[in-house]
Amino acid sequence: MRSRPIGFLLATLAGAVLALGGTSAASASPSTAPASTASGDVGTADACYTWSGTLQQGSSGEAVRQLQIRVAGYPGTGNQIAIDGAFGPATKAAVQRFQSAYGLAADGIAGAQTFNKIYQLQDNDCTPVNFTYAELNRCNSDWSGGKVSAATARANALVTMWKLQAMRHAMGDRPITVNGGFRSVSCNSAVGGAANSRHMYGHAADLGAGSQGFCGLAQAARNHGFTEILGPGYPGHNDHTHVAGGSGRFWSAPSCGI
């Protein structure tokens, strides 16, 4: 766990005009400051990813996909948003929940205030400030050998971390202990994991009790985009809470009322 150093570069108003003037599209560049928006708002340059302009329902493209990763933990109870670059009603609702969680105007339109909050919450490698790739992969260093490509497994783990960041904030910003995440097929076999374990896709994380307790974590996970939740009362899960994304939904933590 670590906190992000404060030192963001401020973009300046220089009469910049959006190339897509009047549209809701936004662009991004990790090395240049964003242009001013049509409303006069100014974004903040970020070492990970920089948005410019605003994004709203109907927008599409890579800037939307990057936003969806950051708000993946705000889909509403029992839901999961698609990371597809299409800003539809589900993405709008997730943006609104994110905005509400951080005391912003919850209009579902991602502009300078929303992006600046995201910049505060992420490190230069795009992970949220309270989680690391190392925590999500105690198997090997290159994310290889799973059921998907190394790049896909790592990308899935990034979405998982942003879901955990949302869950952490909802639980009072108390630390969440991650005992493990991605597993190659061989790592999964070595620990006796299920043959279809979502750990091999990079979707999953096993959580320690921390100050929240296993049941508290399992119950909170229902609100933050996890389609698989296994905890106390489910065979082999009395000593941790397992959370994962991916297709379908299977929640079972009988001792926790789930």
- Please give the largest β-sheet: 5 strands, mixed
Poorly predicted ranges: 1-42
Give the beta-strand count.
7
Total helical elements = 6
Radius of gyration, taken over Cα atoms and rounded to an integer in Å: 19 Å
The end-to-end span amounts to: 29 Å
Instruction: Give the neighbour order of strands across the main sheet.
Output: 3-4-6-5-7
Instruction: Using the alpha-carbon principal axes, give the shape.
Output: globular
Topology as H/E string?
EEHHHHEHEHEEE
Strand content: 5-15%
Output the structural class.
alpha+beta
Helix content: 25-40%
Compute the average pLDDT.
87
Q: What would your notes on this structure say?
A:
- The protein is of the alpha+beta class.
- The chain has helices at 62-70, 89-101, 112-121, 150-170, 185-190, 214-221, and strands at 9-10, 44-45, 178-180, 204-207, 228-230, 241-244, 250-252.
- The protein has a five-stranded mixed β-sheet with strand order 3-4-6-5-7, covered by helices on one side. The protein has a two-stranded antiparallel ribbon with strand order 1-2.
- The longest helix has 21 residues, at 150-170.
- The two termini are 29 Å apart.
- The relative contact order is 0.11.
- The model is unreliable at 1-42 (pLDDT under 50).
